[in-house]
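Section: Multi-chain targets

For targets with more than one molecule, the full set of components is provided together so that the structure can be written out for the assembly as a whole rather than chain by chain. Components appear in the order listed by the source. The example entry contains two components.
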Amino acid sequence: MKDTIEVTIQSARGSTHLTFEKTTKVAEVIETARQKFGFEPGTFILRRQTPDEVLAPERPLVSYHIESGETLLLVPEMGSGV
Amino acid sequence: MAVAKAVSRAHVERELATIEPWVARHGWSVIWDDNHLLLLVRMWSAVDCERYIFEFTVDDYRELPPSIELVHPETGEAETRRSYPAGGRSYFHGKPVICAPWNRKAYQAYGGPHSDWAMVDWVTYRPNHSRLGDMLVLLQELIDDDTNYTGRMER
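Its structure, encoded as tokens over all components, is:
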């Protein structure tokens, strides 16, 4: 069994294919993708589509049983109007 | 400080090139009038299936942020409370205006409530919402957010 997971991460700034160790924490996935897309540091949400759920930053990818090839969505936190 | 039309057009088209997955996912209708530098995006709220049409005027983009207005999908009226969503974590100001530094109309010089922002710095205030795709995805999230979105601002 492979120890890595390949995922596609989509943001409003494009899509990228990334490979991570299964034990990689979601926070690290977010940070890698953030840099790839050229977002500034901040708070981000990484969302799985099926089932529709927000991935907790402190959990490892493997804990969500994410399949290789899945697409995850990265969005900056909404914040609030001012 | 006018930006050449071709430059604004190039910025917009480069930024729109990355949003296709979101267009498909949310069923957006996107009309880009490159001659008039006008972008129309129709979205649906997942909460109540209301339709909202966001009109981005992008002359002088990216020197200036886009000027964003809402158009009612049935009556065609714009700049009214009937054309706006309500809630939206205070982005949807009752004036009505989208109250964010990435909207030209939020600045006092353009009739908005903010005299405390310098438009020249608009990109730096919310850098992760400083591209058209970022703004569109955020707007969709706001009208899908059942913890804050409350439907059309006025019937």
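The mean pLDDT of chain A is 95.
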